[in-house]
Structure formats: structure tokens, C-alpha cells
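I have a small job for you when you get a moment. Would you make up a two-line entry for one protein for me to read? No commentary is needed, just the two lines. Write everything out right here, beneath this request.
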Amino acid sequence: MEPIVLFDGKLMPYSDIPASLLERAWLYGDRLFESMVCFEGKIPFLSNHINRLHAGVKAQGMLWPDHWNVEFWMDEFQKLELENARIRLLVVRAAGGYYQASQKGVHSLVQVSPLTAPAWSWPDRGLEMGLAADIRIPADRIGRYKTHNASRYVVAMEEAREQGWDDVFIQNIQNEVAEASSSNVFCWIENTLITPPLESGCVAGVAREIICAFAQSQGLVVRENPLTFAMVLQSDECFLCNAVQGIRPVVRIGQRSFPSNRTQAFAEALRAHYF
């Protein structure tokens, strides 16, 4: 059975969306998206997601409809009668133009899929990772938002597959670790929790934002500092995070094994606080 989506506020099969309305999404990647979870009928951090999407739409030169506030999107998602699900909310520029778009208006598309594990639960196993050999992330005003210009991440994960890794660290043009394929990076170095700054080119992740705020509320020292791969290798513990999977510990990079005791204790405290 074909999945039902919510397009411009109307429930319909995906195949019923006129292809012309998604033209710029496919031809130019002229769209942004947010991935989030619905857990027991609630969507954690919804305001954070909507605020980031709003900022991204503005940065990409589109017009954000005045009525698209958090309450509006809560009502929209309720049309899908969600209980436990992964949600992807896309905003696509209206058709017309070439590289220079002829319109600033937008369409919205909501897609859902099953949530395979409780939100932000501790995983059964940690991640084995490596460093992408020659993929580099640029640092500009668009990079901090979730766009569909994902070729670098696809190629990086193909390298991870070939090497037998679960995920891959990706550097920027200064050879600093910026992020992983779909996650932000954190390292425990002595008593400090360090994550790359937004200026590194990483996505301004919602989970990253929540983790930094929670850690500071618990009296932990948090720093947004550049991270080299050597620093990651020398860190006490390392983990990835995103808004769908929560915190996932890194347990091996090459020949180096990492513990995850501190990360697990932090992750469980975070989940107890928010979920």
C-alpha cells in the first residue's frame, strides 16, 4: 500500500502530488527538511525544529508563511494520527526559474515512517568509525541547515560501507572534524564536553543544541572548539547525536577502543529529563 503524505495540508498518496510542484526540489535541491520523532503522541523539541527550519528557509531566500508557527504544525501533524513515528518535514520552493528562482513561495510535504526503537534509547551496540579520506565540508551560511545537497554524505557513507564502518567522521577544508554523515560529534576530553563550532561547517543540530543546554544545566563544562581527528582519537570518550536516534557512543576508531560509561550515564540522565 502506497504511503500517505501530507502535502500543503492535504492528505494524499505521494504519487498524487503533481511532479511540476516539486520541480525545483529535484532539479536544484532547492528544499530544506527537518527530521524528528513522535513518541507516544508527542513530538519532542518541535519548537527547536520549526525555528531552525524557519531560519533555513530565510537563509535560502524563500518566504516563510506567517501562519507557520509551532501551533500550526502541531495541528498539521495531528492529521496523520501519529503515535510513534519518524517524521520528515520538507519545505520546497515553488516551481519556476533556473539557478535564479522566479518565486519565493513554498510548498510543504510531511512524510512518516515507523519508529523502530523508543526515542533516544541507549543502543545495543556502539559505533565503529573511521575518517573520510577526501570528502570535505564547506563552511558557509547554508551548511548549518538541513538541505538536500547531500552528495558528500552519500559518498562518505559509501566509503564507510567499503571499510566496514558504521559511520564516518567528515572534515572541513581546514582538516578539522566537522560532523559525521547524519550526526553531530561530541568528545569528552578530561572534564570538558567538546563539540565543533557551527563555523566548522557542521549542521546546527537540534540534538546538539539540547545536549549543550542540558550539560550546562548539570554544571558540566561545554566548549564549542575546533576538533582535529588526532584530538578525537585522544579523547576519553566520543559520541554522535541526532534528533531521531539521540546519543550513540563511538566504541572503536581503527585500533583504538573507547569506553562509553560516562556517555551512557549522561544519555540516560538526558532521556529521563526530556522523555
